[in-house]
Amino acid sequence: MGTLNNIIRETQPDGPGSSGGLVRSSTVLLFLVHLVAVVGVIALGWSWTGFALALGVYFARMVVVTAGYHRYFSHRAFSTSRVFQFLLAVGAQSAAQNSVIWWASHHRWHHRYSDTPRDVHSARLHGFWYAHLGWILKDVWQTDLRQVPDLVKYPELRFLDRRSIVMVPTALLGLAFLLVGGLHGLIWGYMVSTVLVWHGSFAINSLTHLFGRRRYATTDNSRNQWLLALITTGEGWHNNHHHYPSAANQGFFWWEVDLTYWVLRLWQSVGLIWDLRRPPANVLAGPLASRDRPGLAAPLPVPCHELGHPAPIA
User: Fold this and answer.
1) How far apart are the two ends of the chain, measured CA to CA in Å?
2) 159 inside domain
3) What pLDDT sits at residue 29?
4) CA 247/CA 261 separation, integer angstroms
5) Is residue 295 assigned to a domain?
6) How many CB atoms are located within 10 Å of the residue 285 CB?
7) How many Cβ atoms are within 10 Å of 139's Cβ, its own excluded?
8) Beta strands of the chain (E only): which ranges?
9) CB of 174 closer than 8 Å to CB of 39
10) How far apart, in whole angstroms, are the C-alpha atoms of residue 258 and residue 233?
11) Which of 85, 218, 230, 264 could potentially form a cystine with 242 if both were Cys, beta carbons 3.0 to 4.6 Å apart?
12) Using CA atoms, how far apart are residues 251 and 4, in angstroms rounded to an integer?
């Protein structure tokens, strides 16, 4: 325990701050993957089978991103074994969005200070492009281990957080596509799908804090968008999510399609996960927003009331 406390105390920032070379390397990776995807599609020529491959892989990877990075590591919305926790971490990091420790630390901070001056990517305060990409390119977040004490106690997650290791899962995935499908597999299966997964994820930070409908009177600008929910396997029910972040389901009602939650239910049925957290009746009841209509919300600079709680590990 003393060693863990020392690890956490070594973190300097009290919020946003430069994370050094790793994110700068990730920025280079972001540009390179976009470039290779575009040049590769042009060089190989348009392919409907390639497009279908990219789309299928996109949805599979998006489910792993949302189930892993977001609903499990950031909000601990269900319980699982230590082995499957590690596999979820590897799967999430194969999407090249940094380590699960980094991802969860900034996301928990975002919920704590959503759409206030301390928010790391507020679309309301800084606009669409900053929330979508600018905060990543500007390198504004240094991992604050004090946000994730429940994660840093696992040596295997700290191992995946090492600068020399963090991109290994995505490199191995790209190599697998190359070995199995050649250049066609690498370009469409990995490069194009990675670009799609990135922008699907980034759109939640940007679009769902600007446009859509507000069901609940949350303390931020979060919005529900049914189309984005379809595209991002359930993440578009963002006002629901900010109302009760620790729920495994972000589509609260039967008509709100949430593909990630359906996959979580499947994993639960075969014993991979358990204790899926759902919003209780009093949470579903409100408090409701005064106006449930499209458009921009008024500024509501109050921290979010609930971030989620650590889930037990078998």
Assistant:
1) 19
2) yes
3) 86
4) 10
5) no
6) 10
7) 18
8) 79-80, 273-274
9) no
10) 6
11) 218
12) 36
pLDDT digits (tens, 9 = 90+) for 148-200: 999 999 999 999 999 999 999 999 999 999 999 999 999 999 999 999 999 99
Residue 290 belongs to a domain? no
Token representation of residue 18: 């430069």
Determine the structural domain holding residue 281 and report its residue range.
2-285
- Which two three-digit tokens encode residue 62? 């998006």
Which residues lie closer than 8 Å to 203 by C-beta, 6 or more apart?
132, 228, 231, 232
Is 245 within 8 Å of 304 (Cβ atoms)?
yes
| For residues 117-136, average pLDDT | 91
Residue 128 in contact with residue 205, Cβ under 8 Å? no
Tokens of 163: 């600068």
Amino acid at 127: G
Contact 182, 201 (CB under 8 A): no
Which band of pLDDT confidence, cut at 50, 70 and 90, is reported for residue 310?
Answer: low
Taking the CA atoms of residue 151, residue 304, residue 68 and residue 167 in that order, the dihedral angle to the nearest 10 degrees is -70
Residue 147: how many CA atoms within 13 Å on its side-chain side?
A: 27
Give the global pTM: 0.87
Q: What is the mean pLDDT of residues 36-55?
A: 97
The tens digit of pLDDT for each residue in 197-244 reads: 999 999 999 999 999 999 999 999 999 999 999 999 999 999 999 999
| Total structural domains within the chain | 1
Residue 63 is assigned to a structural domain of this protein: yes
